[in-house]
Design goal:
Ubiquitin-like (UB roll), 5 strands, 7 helices, DNA polymerase, domain 1, elongated, alpha+beta, 210 residues, 2 domains
């Protein structure tokens, strides 16, 4: 019967030594690989992952302009607008539908674009903050935000304005409390809420078309 060496015997030490030398050689080789080679390999992997998601055709109207494009099924409406159409006025905040910075209108209804896939909106009409103004003439809500200083850093402002327009349009601006309730999904980390409410009330009381 063959006698196996003890766990701490010479044979086991030789095996551990060979394993250690192999691992050391591997780590040394990796350390000597140029960063550009590693980056190229990573980029190639990203391309292969992207190729696994076949793009599908999409037809929709954005800010009055018809678009026929192809888009990956996994792309959110937010990423599609920002990265493929370069409409960067719509902001990416939390990416979880909790801050409202990405608010746009889809067929007149406000939507958190980070929670919606672009392919879901084939044939629909989308309005972003870029589509509110009439050339150099500001939309009444945009002008009211400027008038009442409804922003500070401005990052959340596009989403605030898009929700504010929907607030008035849907008849939800009857009182300060109602406005605050409707706008509760839009977070302003600068705390300009009082001025935002004042801007909405100004547009509503002025009877301006939104």
């Amino acid at each position: 019967m063959t006698k196996h060496p003890e766990p701490d015997g010479p044979a086991n030490h030789d095996e551990n030594r060979r394993t250690f030398l192999k691992q050391s050689s591997l780590f040394t080789a990796l350390a000597l690989v140029p960063g550009t080679v590693v980056e190229a390999a990573a980029a190639k992997l990203d391309e292969r992952v992207a190729d696994a998601f076949e793009k599908v055709p999409l037809s929709l109207k954005i800010n009055g302009v018809k678009h026929k494009v192809t888009v990956e099924p996994r792309a959110t409406l937010l990423d599609f607008l920002r990265e493929q159409l370069h409409l960067t006025g719509t902001k990416k905040g939390c990416d979880y539908g909790q801050c409202g910075a990405c608010t746009v209108h889809v067929d007149g209804q406000r939507v958190n674009s980070c929670l919606s896939f672009a392919v879901m909106h084939d044939g629909q009409e989308i309005t972003t903050i870029e589509g509110l103004a009439d050339g150099d003439k500001l939309h009444p809500m945009q002008a009211a935000f400027v008038k009442h200083d409804g922003f500070q850093c401005g990052y959340c402002t596009p989403g605030q304005i898009m929700s504010a327009v929907a607030c008035v349009r849907e008849g939800r601006a009857g009182s300060e409390g109602e406005i605050r309730e409707y706008m509760s999904g839009n977070i302003c980390r600068c705390g300009a809420y009082a001025n935002i409410v004042a801007a909405i009330q100004d547009v509503k009381d002025g009877g301006q078309k939104v």
